[in-house]
Design goal:
With 104 residues, this protein is an alpha+beta fold. The protein is built from two helices and five strands.
Length: 104
């Protein structure tokens, strides 16, 4: 997934890539239980450069307003693919409550 980080908050959004439905499982899962875990890793053939981090937090769905606007701006700044066609949302906003990780 594409994401942007602002302090201890992670933003992602439903974008324009084709999907069978905009009623995504990740959205219904968050509506049912907002506790989430995000695993980010960076693979390299140079195994001395490997790393991962696990972020745990509380997620909420932002269909409009300041959170969706912030997510859109941050994602556009990070990914040039969104410059001309920003994600329409909704956005997922994750307040990180714990982090762990490893690096070589």
């Amino acid at each position: 997934m594409t994401f942007a980080v602002d302090g201890v908050t992670i933003y992602t959004a439903v974008d324009h890539k084709p999907k069978r439905s905009r009623d995504l499982h990740r959205l219904s899962n968050i509506a049912r239980d907002p506790r989430v875990t995000l695993l980010v890793q960076d693979y390299s053939d140079d195994w001395t450069a490997l790393w991962w981090c696990r972020l745990e937090g509380e997620a909420r769905i932002a269909g409009e307003g300041a959170d969706l606007d912030r997510a859109t701006r941050l994602l556009q700044a990070k990914y040039r693919q969104y410059e001309g066609k920003p994600p329409r949302g909704p956005a997922i906003v994750i307040a990180v409550t714990a982090a762990s990780g490893w690096r070589a």
